[in-house]
Design goal:
The complex is a heterodimer. In chain A, strand 3 (201-202) and strand 4 (211-212) form a beta hairpin. Chain A has helices spanning 2-26, 57-69, 92-100, 132-137, 150-153, 162-169, 174-183, 233-248, 252-282; strands at 103-106, 115-118, 201-202, 211-212. In chain A, helix 2 crosses helix 8 (233-248). Chain A has 9 helices and 4 strands. Chain B is mostly helical. Helix content of chain B is 62%, strand content 1%. Chain B has 16 helices and 2 strands. Chain B has helices at 13-21, 24-32, 47-68, 76-85, 90-117, 126-148, 153-165, 173-181, 188-219, 238-263, 293-301, 311-327, 329-332, 344-364, 371-397, 407-415; strands at 36-38, 235-237. Chain B has a two-stranded antiparallel sheet with strand order 1-2. In chain B, helix 3 (47-68) runs antiparallel to helix 5 (90-117), helix 6 packs antiparallel against helix 9 (188-219) and helix 11 (293-301) crosses helix 15 (371-397). Classes of the chains: A mainly alpha, B mainly alpha. Chains A and B meet through helix 1 and helix 9 of A and helix 4, helix 5, helix 10, helix 14 and helix 15 of B.
């Protein structure tokens, strides 16, 4: 038995040793990094985080304005219907007026012709390009990703042991944290010696490489806010990230509210069943 | 409980009328009310019941989701998003179903580990164990095909990688792969047949569960001591004792499940699956669902050729072998003592096995490069050594601790001192240790 234990200890040492090698391999030189993103995104405070999180309607409205005035030139948002904008605090009439600013293709009409008309609340945001190939052709071969789910479709790996703590802290803001970090990360200069491919833009927060095709999309004062919020890249980035989280998860508030009721019920029910269990088993021992 | 007397006596006229014609109420009464269970079952034994409700929950949510789902590659992704956005409580159903798969596996892994710890597979429960292994295999197939249905990037590329394993099989491999795919690559026919099978397999699972429970009720449950039931004082009636205990465990389990559904519903998923499948864009790291990761690590651990077997086939054989070995566990364990409680060495190796399995799971999520490969190989070695070397050898050389004479004695020993039980009369148990 001793031998077996010694063997196990030996295996343990080998494992520890190889783990050390693995960590050593992860150390990379600054000029040619091999793991992306180069910097992990900063964790932000979001109003929608935590068990009682709700969207800040003013923030979503500002985010919508940024999407409309900046992002929507290249990025579609196919899955989001205008009617759902009522979640942002707009009235039915306001949504109708907002939709009417867009044109969508409809048809065929009685003559078999396709035609364009003003969008109705039931329509979805129209795409800036007629199809994915046109989008790619207009953007150096890489179609800009659709924005409907982007806040859930991006997330920098948290790593061990952080991902375990995330269960208890209810961390679920990988997406908005990433978008915010990316949009505010353009100003950093590439380290000396790094080659940034032509036509791409260095951003140490980009998830899939050292640089990306999209140029810095936001600059201070670019979008006018009517509610007095600061017109800075930092504020813009927070607002669009929150808006995209809403676009990806429109029922987040209902989910958390339902969840609270369900948790209260289950905890009380568990307590009652436990008390009953104690009583039933009291005469069995 | 074979040959046990039925204690069911219908009290009403209509009850007697039914009992004389089709005694279903009698079957239910004998199976879930008067059925005797060992009195010393702990909470590890509640996962059978938890798995039953998880299966029912998955089938119910799945049937409703299927009413809104479109199994066509051009529509599938959008139809799932329509469920998330426009179907009443669709987000709830879908998060219940996707997290439900994970919690189904959490429960089944605890259930299997409990079986391994307490020696539940030993005679006369070999068939009970094998039926359980079949259920587990069916679960894996169902889970895999279900993950393909949302038609995200991981759905598509996971399906491509996993069906690709079959091409490693000599002679028939390519044919098997094409049969699974319905073509030469993952496409609409693949999605269609996976949807059909994903709907079918849970009902097959339910069928095997009936056999599993039947086999259980013939041989009776094991218990933490591993000693068979000897007298009536060793048992309590299923209802109310086991039902209330199972009920409590279920509600606690559901509370953890609900926490994930309502607060971190995408924690166990992969962000890439919110990107629609694209056969021209390969994700940087293709990883399967977390519950397959240990097996994925074993698959990728075989990076060398073994004689005529090349590394690809070797990996596939190791992966399937790691599940196949479970089927012969009843004959690999040579110990006369059933429960790890009385087997100090087996207990140690068992817990190392559990840690190793989790470690392999973590390795499965890492890229297969550098030191991770070596660690996977060591983990794989221990996985197989546990079943093929430690189990047979340890049973022959280990000196088990003294077993109590009966379950009742074990319970009294445990309650000795402090307990209100007046049963000092039973065979004075020696002090432990």
């Amino acid at each position: 038995m001793k031998k077996v234990l010694n063997g196990l200890a030996a295996i343990g040492f080998v494992l520890a040793g190889t783990a050390g090698v693995a960590l050593a391999q992860e150390a990379h030189n600054a000029a040619e990094p091999t793991h992306f993103p180069i910097h992990k995104p900063k964790e932000m405070d979001w109003t929608f985080a935590g068990p009682f999180g709700t969207y800040d309607k003013g923030q979503l409205q500002r985010g919508l304005k940024i999407y409309k005035e900046v992002c929507s030139a290249c990025h579609s948002m196919d899955l989001v219907a205008f009617r759902t904008l009522e979640d942002l605090g707009y009235s039915e009439a306001q949504v109708k007026a907002f939709a009417a600013e867009y044109e969508v293709q409809d048809g065929p009409n009685g003559d078999g012709e396709m035609f364009t008309r003003k969008a109705l609340p039931g329509d979805h945001f129209p795409s800036p390009f007629p199809n994915a190939i046109a989008a790619a052709a207009a953007n150096n071969g890489a179609a800009p990703p659709d924005f409907s789910l982007i806040a859930k479709a991006r997330g920098v790996e948290r790593g061990f042991p952080t991902f375990v703590f995330d269960i208890f802290t209810m961390y679920a803001s990988n997406g908005p944290d990433y978008i915010h970090a990316l949009l505010t990360g353009y100003d950093e200069q590439p380290p000396a010696g790094m080659e940034v491919p032509e036509g791409t833009h260095y951003n140490p927060f980009f998830i899939a490489g050292k640089s990306l095709a999209m140029a810095k999309p936001l600059s201070d004062g670019q979008v006018t806010y009517e509610d007095g919020s600061p017109e800075t890249v930092e504020q813009y980035s927070r607002d669009i990230s929150a808006f995209l989280m809403w676009a990806a998860e429109p029922h987040l508030e209902a989910r958390k509210q339902t969840g609270f009721a369900v948790m209260i019920f289950l905890v009380l029910f568990a307590g009652l069943i436990y008390a009953t269990k104690r009583k039933v088993w009291a005469n069995a021992h | 409980m074979s040959g046990g007397h039925s204690t069911y006596s219908p009290k009403t006229g209509i009850g007697r009328w039914i009992d004389a014609r089709m005694p279903l109420p009698r079957l239910v009464h004998d199976s879930f009310v008067s059925y005797p269970v060992p009195r010393n079952l702990n909470y590890a034994y509640t996962f059978g019941g938890i798995l039953s409700i998880m299966l029912v929950a998955q089938i119910l949510t799945g049937v409703v989701l299927a009413m809104h789902y479109a199994n066509d590659t051009t529509l599938a992704f959008q139809s799932v998003e329509k469920i998330m956005r426009d179907v009443n409580s669709g987000w709830l159903l879908r998060y219940m179903h996707s997290n439900g798969a994970s919690f189904f596996f959490i429960a089944v892994y605890i259930h299997i580990m409990r079986g391994l710890y307490y020696g539940s597979y030993k005679a006369p429960r070999e068939l009970l164990w094998i039926l359980g292994c079949i259920i587990y295999l069916l679960m894996m197939a169902t889970g895999f095909m279900g993950y393909v249905l949302p038609w995200g990037q991981m759905s598509f590329w996971g399906a491509t990688v996993i069906t690709g394993f079959f091409t490693a099989i000599p002679v028939v491999g390519e044919w098997v792969q094409q049969l699974l795919l319905g073509g030469f690559a993952v496409d609409n026919p693949t999605l269609n047949r996976f949807f059909a099978l994903h709907y079918l397999l849970p009902f097959m699972i339910a069928g095997v569960v009936v056999l599993h429970v039947w086999a259980l009720h013939v041989v009776g449950q094991t218990n933490p001591t591993g000693i068979e039931v000897k007298s009536k004082t060793d048992t309590v009636a299923f209802t109310p004792y086991a039902t209330i205990k199972d009920g409590f465990a279920m509600v606690v389990f559901l509370a953890v499940f609900a926490y994930f559904i309502f607060y971190i519903p995408n924690f166990l998923g992969h962000p890439d699956n919110y990107i629609m499948a694209d056969s021209l864009k390969t994700p940087a790291h293709i990883v399967p669902e977390w519950y397959y990761l240990p097996f994925y690590a074993i698959l990728r651990a075989i990076t060398f050729n073994i004689g005529p077997i090349d590394s690809k086939l070797g990996g596939v054989l190791a992966m399937f072998g790691s599940i196949a070995v479970l089927f012969i566990v009843p004959w690999l364990d040579t110990s006369k003592v059933r429960s790890a409680v009385y087997r100090p060495w087996y207990k140690l190796f068992f817990w190392i096995f559990v840690i190793n399995a989790i470690f392999l799971g973590w390795l499965g999520s890492r890229p297969a490069e550098g030191a991770y490969v070596i660690m996977s190989q060591l983990g794989t070695l221990y996985y197989f050594a546990f079943f093929l070397v430690i189990m047979p050898v340890l049973g022959l050389i280990e000196t088990p601790r003294r077993l109590p004479n009966s379950i009742t004695e074990a319970v009294l020993e445990k309650n000795k001192g402090g307990s209100a039980h007046p049963a000092g009369a039973t065979a004075a148990p020696e002090t432990r240790g």
